[in-house]
């Protein structure tokens, strides 16, 4: 696989995962229609994305992040990798958390917006600032970035295990056992650890699975992984433990990656590349659009369904507009908010 094709495939998958994340947070049937029978049909339709396809988005993000970090990794690259990830992860994490918090503080004190915010008057004090900036209290979707920062910080431990094939097997199997037993770690979720270490192990030892074209062998491998993931999901839905759900979320994105030959994918468009900025902004946009719509069109099934279907594209249009303004008039702020990503 050529480098250009590999990067193009990465961007296609991250774009698809970003759209799914927006849809997961766009569920609005109950907001518009309450809990009555009128909402049931729309709730079922929304659930297909929220609890179906949408469940694979964040695990996919973890696996792509691990693959990119550990691709061609060696000890000599640790310092440069940490500096790069500090800029692309830690800086926007703290900055966006602060922006979300200040937004809630201001909006909760403005007539007409207090009800839309729905959190009462948000206090402004040192304790709340810490909770907001460090513990992402007002920016719930950044739990993913929080996990990723800690996983990157653990690179010396993880790579120490992953650099040998035996260590990689033990590390991945250990993470799987922790998921199965539902063991709790401080700071890091055991399912996040499994998604990350499994992809990192493949990036270090099986580049044929992560970077080669599909071909007949790849299609068979992809079908096997996807089928195994679907089976785990079915077992979970029939009363299986949460471990089956996590394995489903792990195996199906892996299978889809292996099934997809990069030669089949057209070149991504520029508007498909700013996935991080879309991820960072979408939560506030979704809440604002949905809650405003509920005030303007209370009880409207048509408005709820239309906004749910259009939400990813509305958020994408808004994020692209904000990006254009920031890049032109506030380039340094844009560089911090985007983590240095510039396509």
The figure for the number of domains is 1
The coarse silhouette is: globular
**How many extended strands?**
0
Measured by DSSP, the beta-strand proportion falls in under 5%
Low-confidence stretches: none
Helix content: over 70%
Largest sheet: none
**How do the SSEs run, as a string of H and E?**
HHHHHHHHHHHHHHHHH
Residue-averaged pLDDT: 92
* Separation, N- and C-terminal Cα atoms: 22 Å
Radius of gyration: 21 Å
Class by SSE composition? mainly alpha
Task: Provide structural commentary.
The chain is an all-alpha fold and 343 residues long. The protein has one domain (3-213, 261-337). Helix content is 73%, strand content 0%. It has 17 helices and no strands. It has helices spanning 3-24, 29-33, 40-50, 57-70, 78-107, 114-117, 126-133, 143-153, 155-162, 165-181, 190-205, 207-211, 215-237, 242-259, 275-296, 301-329, 331-337. The longest helix is centred in the N-terminal third of the chain and has 30 residues, at 78-107. The radius of gyration is 21 Å and the shape is globular. The protein starts with a helix and ends in a 6-residue tail after the last helix.
Main attributes of the structure:
single chain, 343 residues, mainly alpha, 0% strand, globular
Topology:
Layout: H1 3-24, H2 29-33, H3 40-50, H4 57-70, H5 78-107, H6 114-117, H7 126-133, H8 143-153, H9 155-162, H10 165-181, H11 190-205, H12 207-211, H13 215-237, H14 242-259, H15 275-296, H16 301-329, H17 331-337
Helix pairs in contact: 1-4, 1-15, 1-16, 4-11, 4-14, 5-8, 9-10, 10-11, 10-14, 13-14, 15-16, 16-17
């Amino acid at each position: 696989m050529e480098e250009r094709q590999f990067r193009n495939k990465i961007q296609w998958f991250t774009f698809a995962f970003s759209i799914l994340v927006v849809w997961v947070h766009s569920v609005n049937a109950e907001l518009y229609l309450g809990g009555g029978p009128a909402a049931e049909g729309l709730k079922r339709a929304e659930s297909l994305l929220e609890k179906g396809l949408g469940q694979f988005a964040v695990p996919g993000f973890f696996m792509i992040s691990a693959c990119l970090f550990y691709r061609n990794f060696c000890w000599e690259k640790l310092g440069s990798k940490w500096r790069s990830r500090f800029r692309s992860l830690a800086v926007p994490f703290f900055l966006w958390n602060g922006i979300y918090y200040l937004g809630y503080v201001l909006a909760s004190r403005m007539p007409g917006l207090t009800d839309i915010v729905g959190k009462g008057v948000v206090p402004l004090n040192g304790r709340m600032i810490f909770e907001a900036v460090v513990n992402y209290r007002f920016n719930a979707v950044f739990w993913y970035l929080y996990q990723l920062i800690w996983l990157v910080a653990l690179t010396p431990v993880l790579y120490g295990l992953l650099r040998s094939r035996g260590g990689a097997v033990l590390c991945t199997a250990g993470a799987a056992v922790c998921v199965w037993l539902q063991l709790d770690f401080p700071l890091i979720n055991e399912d996040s650890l499994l998604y990350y270490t499994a992809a990192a192990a493949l990036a270090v030892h099986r580049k044929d699975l992560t970077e080669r074209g599909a071909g007949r062998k790849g299609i068979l491998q992809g079908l096997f992984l996807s089928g195994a993931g679907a089976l785990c999901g079915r077992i979970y839905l029939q009363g299986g433990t949460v471990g089956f759900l996590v394995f489903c979320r792990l195996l199906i994105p892996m299978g889809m990656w292996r099934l997809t030959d990069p030669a089949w994918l057209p070149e991504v468009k520029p508007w498909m590349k700013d996935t991080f900025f879309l991820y960072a902004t979408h939560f506030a946009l979704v809440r604002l659009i949905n809650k405003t719509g509920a005030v303007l069109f209370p009880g409207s099934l048509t408005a709820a369904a239309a906004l749910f279907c259009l939400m990813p594209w509305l958020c994408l249009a808004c994020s692209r507009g904000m990006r254009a303004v920031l890049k032109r008039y506030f380039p340094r702020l844009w560089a911090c908010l985007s983590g240095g990503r510039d396509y």
